[in-house]
Amino acid sequence: MAVAEIPLLEAATLRDAIRRRHLSPVEVIDAVVQQVDELDPLIHAFCTFLPDHARADAKRLEAELMAGRALGPLAGVPISIKDLLALNGVRMSAGSVAYAEFVPQQDDIVVERLKIADAIVLGKTNVSEFGYAATGHNHLFQTTRNPWNPALTPGGSSAGSAAAVAAGMGPLSIGTDGGGSVRIPASFCGLFGMKPSMGRIPLYPSCRDERYPGISSWETLEHVGPLSRTVADSALLLSVVVGPDHRDRHSLPAEPVNWLRAANGELPRLRVAYSPDWGYAKVDPEVLEIVGRAASVFEVELGCSVEEATPDLDGLQEIFWGVAMADNDLEGMRALAARHASQMMPHLVASLGAPWTAEDLTRANMGRKAVCNEMSRFMSGYDLLLTPTVAAPPFPVDLIAPAAIGDLAVEPDEWLPFTAPMNLTGQPAATVPAGWTRDGLPVGLQIAGPHLDDALVLQASAAFEAVSPWKDRWPPLVHEIVKGTPARRE
User: Which residue intervals of 310-453 are DSSP H helices?
Assistant: First the structure.
């Protein structure tokens, strides 16, 4: 196999090839490091790249394999970690000058479990500052670009994670999702991305004594989730990172779910709701067309009963940001902004400085309860809920929001109506590539399931993938590398 082809392999394929000694962990890491060296000067997915660390881990695993030790379920698979999750001894800036030199002395729970499974960490991926935007902007690092068109955003806040996987810089990444931050960039980069049920993957919560304000701070909104090229690869990752941990009071008990079997593509006849716009959202016409076709696949190809239906979720943005601010260490974050405001993103400083009152936060909390009740009632009539993942295709990389959707002007948050409800409710939701625009840009279909039914969301995603496969469709610049033509630098 040519070295340039190794980064195109899925995680499960790499794992099996390493176990059978068809590939060595060192060969895999060398090939992926070469891919990063070629493409990341253009994409800027990594804020902290660790090639020497990854090679040392690969050599250790190779020695253990040769000595006859059985390796873990992610044996030698390269993975990247979003820079809102702690990696012991490695800088975690959270995309902010406030933590430019912060080096945690512990691993996040999910990182602990990945190491035990013998995954090889490539480095930390770029984020918007503290994850407070659905793009990849901050004042520390160059803005992450979309591999499908580097003039466009990859989405965010798990911007670097999505860009890395889409560009073949490792088959897996771990992101966090407080309002769509896994699903949005997965949609913009043509990937599978999943926000499991709240607490399915434990998250060590932020506090001033242990993790400082702003990092993993949305305790009741933020989820940890995988990004990958295939549903099966995310199922493989989930199989090693789910389960309770005493450090996360929201973590769920272990359940007898066979995550790999859940991704086998078989789907029973289901009742499926499809909401193209929540009844009020502005959605790009081409997105509506592509997602509408994808929703029809569930009826025509998969034998489900699909009905256009919409829960009542109007007024969501005001609810969401009030809950986020109540979750946050507002006092601690305001102190950070007072010291670093001139070097922080203006929208973040403005949000922190808004005159939030107890009544504002109470209304948001009560609104959240109403959303949860409404969604519970709605889902009692359906097995799945389908929506667009994002209301617009990828837009220019220098913006943090599109100025318009189609011919309609929009406010900064109006392009993201579909993902945040699932963070308020905590129910599982994933995005799958629904298709590509006429300009060759990915568009995502969101698949949401009932509370705690993560396995069904995986099943549905895998079934859609089986009849509408996407894994062999790569960004043009990746094909340039495989053919031996270096990507241009920007």
Answer: 316-327, 330-340, 346-353, 358-379, 420-425
Burial of residue 426 (CB within 10 Å: 0-12, 13-18, 19+) is buried
Cα 114-81-22 angle, rounded to 5 deg: 55
Question: What is the pTM for the complete model shown?
Answer: 0.96
Q: Which helix (H) or strand (E) holds 232?
A: helix 231-241
Cα dihedral value 165, 135, 389, 216, nearest 10: 80
Q: Fill in the amino acid letter for 74.
A: L
Indicate the pairing of strand 429-436 with strand 442-448.
antiparallel
Q: Could you say which of 24, 93, 158, 181 is catalytic?
A: 181
Residues 6 or more apart whose CB falls under 8 angstroms from that of 370 comprise: none
Selecting among 24, 82, 195, 234, the annotated active-site residue is: 82
The token duo for 42 is: 């253009």
Read off the pLDDT of residues 129-147 as tens digits, 9 standing for 90 and up. Answer: 999 999 999 999 999 999 9
Domain interval for residue 101: 3-482
The enclosing domain of 211 has a CATH number of 3.90.1300.10
Q: Is the pLDDT of residue 7 over 60?
A: yes
Work out how many domains the chain is built from and give that number: 1
**Residue for token digits 């990937």?**
191
Q: Is 228 a catalytic residue?
A: no
Beta pairing partners, 308: 274
Is residue 487, in this structure, part of any structural domain at all?
no
Euclidean distance between CA atoms 441 and 425, whole angstroms: 30
Q: Which of 157, 187, 206, 251 is catalytic?
A: 157
Q: Examine the residue annotation and report whether 157 is marked as an active-site residue of this protein.
A: yes
447 vs 278: CA distance, rounded Å:
14
